[in-house]
From TrEMBL, chains A, B:
EC number, as in UniProt: 2.7.7.4
SUPFAM superfamilies: Nucleotidylyl transferase (SSF52374), PUA domain-like (SSF88697)
One of the record's GO cellular component terms: chloroplast
Pathway noted in the entry: Sulfur metabolism; hydrogen sulfide biosynthesis; sulfite from sulfate: step 1/3
Protein name: sulfate adenylyltransferase
């Protein structure tokens, strides 16, 4: 276990006691509460404002946000009344729930240095190059178009304004878009270049694109107040700035992000635990895991956010993951299911939240082809593309080791091809079928209480609506 | 007309007499012969080997090839017998005419630093990022996949070899491909990401992709001898190395490339002449035009290469372009008709031939949508994408000024919106229709002898095969 100190410039960690005690708990943070209950060491609480540094030892700084500075577009409280008044005087565009999710994403700087919905030059660079060149010549990754579609009538209504207001589906004003630019929305080209197919049945396309307008409007966002969903989960929606503060207070010298949109089984847990072990072996003293479920739009047959969060909570309560070194938060982006294109977005956004390591699995952001009997993407392309993506050179990509159920040990373990017959691969589909039918997976596949959450979810489906699924998305999108 | 000397480091041109006299003429170079006939100054001839420099004044170096060194993959003559013997012992893949065009393109370094058909990492970078990151971290543009498709049986036949031979359609051995890598050919994804549509009817797709195999084979090329077509036009197929030699011998201090796949009308000529004027105004002393018609595969309703070359020759004979400062050569690439994606390839390849200025028009490499009544690409996207493309930062992009027929002057002129009613726009379709019907375009649209070539072409069609069109491609692909 020789420490490879060369990769750790000026690393001077404080005592391990200190690294355990400084943590920011948002109000009613159930995860961190449950961490406290299950923790071996005691956790103390500090608020974001109260930065009681326990050590003056210089810390290794977190990875810098793309563009050098974290974008934050929520209007300062003192200015809100005047901005609100201005917004109510402007022509407005009504947003869809997914549009609001993008306002949320951009307002908190996940897409830094992007400051609003894309104008045409940004859109074209995202489509063609999966990256943006900045004024200083540097390049940041940006693989997914973040755009706002409007129709002909809306275009006409705002064409003479340089600023417009944006309203949530509830009607509430949530933002001003300034210095707008209107350009054509060629949906076919956008779909082909983003998804690598134009086959009907792509979930995000059907949900957000097919019936959207033929124009896009770009501009700079000013968001009137933090975006909230009032679904009992807002306390997990930590912004990049909040996450960075937590990592700093925890004195993290490495942050490794794990993106997921599925329940956590013990194979995932093994992987995350193993990653931490590898980072410690590399010489890092306090690697922190950002367990970061995606919280925006997901397709109908994914497990909804509410249930996933319940399941994650059980996993943590049962001690499957180390609560000391784990931060759980919701990533507010909607899901594209765009495979190698989207995984870059997932990774890039986490740089902005302070992560310098990113765990990438088999077929990230992938799904079945909507009209053919095959995976939409080559399962290896995601990690290959990610490892070569422009603007992600600073990020350490950690490819997933394959975990499967080891029948000889009765637990999830890394697959050993020399004794392949000992391993059982339990796909997401197989897992869902077990849960739907109320069957138990092999002992050791998932912690029992976590599994029970899934069983409860599928039972609630068959009870409530004959098992039919609807699009999963936080329902109430509104602001205070 | 102040010279902006800042853009011209260490520029010390020789006398204008010298710049007129040093020129490499390949054998039977009809263009340059005709230039000689029409030239005001006398041209002297030197062979590629005989580099009689008329001046020792240090020249401003030509733009460096991508990757720093021009790739040249034709085996030295001394090694040919042994390589030929080796090739004949290897399992082989029969090439299509378009495959051979790509072998030609790569062998001469148009795609530098690419050294063969793409392996998977290069292919994925081209598809997703339109660029390749090199070992030193630098980035070169590479927007179009240059790949070799094979079918299941061919894959099986070569799977155990690390090197394979490539044969022309004639059966002749033309190259060895070394250290091969076989990977999946997902045609749908390749088409969607390259063309931004998967609509049926894309010419290159129908010609080269639809019936191609489900695997791609990448590797390093060794080409057994220079690729020749024996169609009477080989003397115009100058390699990047040959072009660079000409530009150096002409003591060019700026090279501006004009890609075309259509007959040259006086609007084009005006643009090229005007570009030279602008470059002179910028302080360049000897800007050279590379008039560079595309010579590989083109779609059935484009004017075939043979006829276009005849037409270009007439244009030069009639003195529409200045023969002193013009080099005409054939660009051997096949045409993708992939708009903003392809225009990057067209520009990048010309860097490798020494061009540091690139003229880009409206809707470059564009065409009508194959199934909808609209342009496939937004006509402005080509130049926008080109101006932002990774790896092309060194290239000066010169956007096309719009030229149209000015009725008040009876000639082609730059469009003046303040007197729009004076201008007549003659589209390619309109031009072709005039020629098909044997009608005369307005005087001053095109030089009369050039026009006659087009009329002859369309008459030959209706005489020979009832006007039906077939795919245009150099027929005889073989080597000495």
């Amino acid at each position: 276990m020789a420490a490879t100190a060369a990769v750790l410039p000026s690393l001077s960690p404080s005592s391990s006691a200190a690294s355990q005690t400084a943590v920011f708990l948002p109000p009613n943070q159930r995860f961190l509460q449950s961490l406290r209950q299950t923790s071996l060491g005691g956790l103390s609480v500090s608020t974001p404002g109260g930065s009681k540094r326990r050590s003056t030892t210089p810390l290794r700084a977190l990875i810098a946000p793309d563009g050098g500075e974290l974008v934050e577009l929520v209007v300062p409280e003192v200015d809100r009344p005047s901005k609100q008044a201005e917004a109510s005087s402007l022509p407005y565009i009504p947003l869809t729930p997914i549009d609001v999710e993008w306002v949320h994403v951009v307002s908190e700087g996940w897409a830094s240095p992007l400051r609003g919905f894309m104008r045409q030059t940004e859109y074209l660079q995202a489509l063609h190059f999966n990256s943006l060149r900045l004024a200083d010549g540097s390049v940041v990754n940006m693989s997914v178009p973040i755009v706002l579609a409007i129709d002909d009538l809306q275009k006409e209504a705002i064409a003479t304004s340089s600023s417009i207001a944006l309203r949530a589906p509830s009607g509430e004003l949530i933002a001003i878009l300034r210095n707008i630019e209107i350009y054509k929305h060629n949906k076919e080209e956008r779909i082909a270049r983003t998804w690598g197919t134009t086959a009907p049945g792509l979930p995000y396309v059907e949900e957000a694109l097919t019936s959207s307008g033929n124009w896009l409007v770009g501009g700079d966002l000013e968001v009137l107040q933090p975006i909230k969903y009032y679904d009992g989960l807002d306390q997990y929606r930590l912004s990049p700035a909040q996450l960075r503060k937590i990592f700093e207070e925890k004195q993290a010298d490495a942050v490794f992000a794990f993106q997921l949109r599925n329940p956590v089984h013990n194979g995932h847990a093994l992987l995350m635990t193993d990653t931490r072990k590898r980072l410690l072996e590399m010489g890092y003293k306090n690697p922190i895991l950002l367990l970061h479920p995606l919280g925006g739009y997901t397709k109908a047959d994914d497990v909804p956010l509410q249930w996933r969060m319940k399941q994650h909570e059980k996993v943590l309560e049962e001690g499957v993951l180390d609560p000391e070194s784990t931060v759980v938060a919701i990533f507010p982006s909607p899901m594209h299911y765009a495979g190698p294109t989207e995984v870059q977005w997932h990774a890039k956004a986490r740089i902005n939240a302070g992560a310098d390591f990113y765990i990438v699995g088999r077929d990230p952001a992938g799904m079945g082809h909507p009209t053919q009997k095959r995976d939409l993407y080559d399962p290896d392309h995601g990690k290959l593309v990610l490892s070569m993506a422009p603007g992600l050179e600073r990020l350490n990509i950690l490819p997933f080791k394959v975990a499967a159920y080891d029948k000889s040990q009765g637990k999830m373990a890394f697959f050993d091809p020399s004794r392949a017959e000992d391993f059982l691969f339990i796909s997401g589909t197989k897992m869902r079928n077990f849960a739907k039918l109320g069957e138990k997976p092999p002992a050791g596949f998932m912690c029992p209480e976590g599994w029970q959450v899934l069983v409860d979810y599928y039972q609630s489906l068959s009870t409530n609506n004959n098992g039919s699924l609807t699009t999963q998305q936080p329902k109430a999108v509104a602001s205070v």
